[in-house]
Amino acid sequence: MNRKMLNTAAAAIAIALSACMQVASAQETLTVMLSGVKEAKGSVRVGVCDDPKKPFPGFCSAYLGSAEAKAGETTVTITGMKPGTYALQMFHDLNDDGMLNFPAEGVAYGNDATYPPSFAAASVKVAGPTSTSARMLYAPGGAAAAAPTDPMFVVTLAGTVRMGATGVPAGPGITKIDVRDNGLYGELYAPTGKANLPAIIILGGSEGGLTIASTTAASFNRQGYAVLVLAYFAEVGLPRTLQSVPVEYFDKAIAWLKARPEVNPAKIGAIGGSRGSEAVLLMASRSRDVKAVMAFAPSGIMGGGVDPQNMMKPSAAWSLGGKDLPYVFPDLTRTGGDVLIAGLAVKPDAEIASELINGPILLISGEDDRLWPSTPLANQLVARLKAKGFKHGVEHLVYPGAGHYVFVGDPTGRPAPAPGSVSPAGPGGMSLGGTPEANYKAWTDSWPRVLKFFDDALKRN
405 phi and psi, to 5 degrees? Predict the structure, then answer.
């Protein structure tokens, strides 16, 4: 999950009260219903933008409206508008200063537009009395996320968590080993009594820890794989935040795994999702021992670091040799994957050298990813691999209507969504995108293809 992108986007939609430009002769009315307002404090403000040629989100308010914030749902009505098509940007002005103070204050776009929102995606047509709705989103903890007094607790994008996690319990016939050697923090799951198995390293995203990533281990254990679930921050002995994480850490994990009797050292693959896709691509591009990589909701571009207690401070996510690696920020004058890709013109070294990976690559994305534009970013990665003459196979599975949560492992036992169900919100109330039906289709379709991908690379070669 890329909170730096939401941070930058939110900062761009601050709306000055003095920018109001009402037209006296106009007669149309727009009613905006904002759900998800977390408390009855301050005001909810709506900026209405009328020029698709201007940067959006941005300082482009042709009309403004506001209402006293009400917990749950707040309605803002704007009158005296000319008929036309307008893009909407909103925020919860908790302190009533007329400006966005992110990450304490929530943000929203018209139509709950997928991040990064284009003018068209966030726009509504006003012709006569018009109503629309959107959901307010807040950064986890916001600026009020105080540093825990107990050093065993750390603030992540999933909230405040206690370090010392051990992952999910091992299933029947599986042995679980705590990995705490040489500065590593992880869990090894392997079929009991088996040796020389193909192995997969699984990395989580920007939530940190082992809990979420470890739920996927059993899917591969049942298929005869040993699985190392590896934390890389927010755990004992590791960086507390996704900032300046040394990529040498992954080298140590590979060396540890190769020495295990459960593992065939010539048959190692890796999986990473969201910010973990950066980690897995960095890891595999540095090691000839990783023979297959799957990345979901991926990016082949290094983004900035994430400190939920100080979202406004620029920082690097990754380091090498004690020096921060380059990273890019979004360019909000652009849309789609270009919000990050454009930054490569200034910092070309922020693109990961994925063409150095010693094996095939499988990418999975949902076209309705609302945390970051993973489908365009995956397409950019494929384009780089082709341009660099990547000698191994590369495939990109794209799921229309699916969101960020596009892979869960083996979905057996997960019931299909009930008609009319709504996708749950992600950390901090953020929309991960996708309808329940589209997400479920992505899970059920991708799992056998992922399994075949690793079987072909690690069992049949």
Answer: -85, 70
| CATH architecture label of 153-459 | 3-Layer(aba) Sandwich (3.40)
Provide the 10 A C-beta neighbour count for residue 329: 18
Identify whether the C-beta of residue 227 lies closer than 8 Å to the C-beta of residue 238: no
How far is 367 from 365, CA to CA, in rounded Å? 7
Q: Dihedral angle at the C-alpha atoms of 280, 285, 288, 294, nearest 10 degrees?
A: 40
Predicted pLDDT of residue 8: 42
Tokens standing for residue 365: 């994305």
> Is residue 445 very low, low, confident or very high in pLDDT (cuts 50, 70, 90)?
very high
Q: Model-level pTM?
A: 0.73
From CA 270, how far away is CA 268, in angstroms rounded? 7
Domain boundaries, the chain: 3-138, 153-459
- Residue 96's pLDDT band (boundaries 50, 70, 90)? confident
Crossing angle of helices 275-286/248-258, nearest 10°?
70
For 402, residues 6+ apart whose C-beta sits below 8 A from its C-beta are: 366, 367, 368, 369, 433, 434, 435, 438, 439, 441, 442
What residues form DSSP beta bridges with 451? none
CA distances from residue 146 to 21, 154, 269, 359 in whole angstroms, order as listed: 39, 10, 39, 44
Cis peptide before 246 (omega within 30 of 0): no
288: exposed, middle or buried (Cβ count in 10 Å: 0-12, 13-18, 19+): exposed
| Structure-token pair, residue 214 | 């470890």
Architecture of the domain made up of 3-138? Sandwich (2.60)
Among 45-49, 283-287, 370-374, 418-422, name the most confident range: 283-287
CB-CB contact of 78 with 46 (8 Å):
yes
Residue 281 makes CB contacts below 8 A (sequence gap 6+) with 272, 293, 295, 298, 300, 352, 354, 357, 381
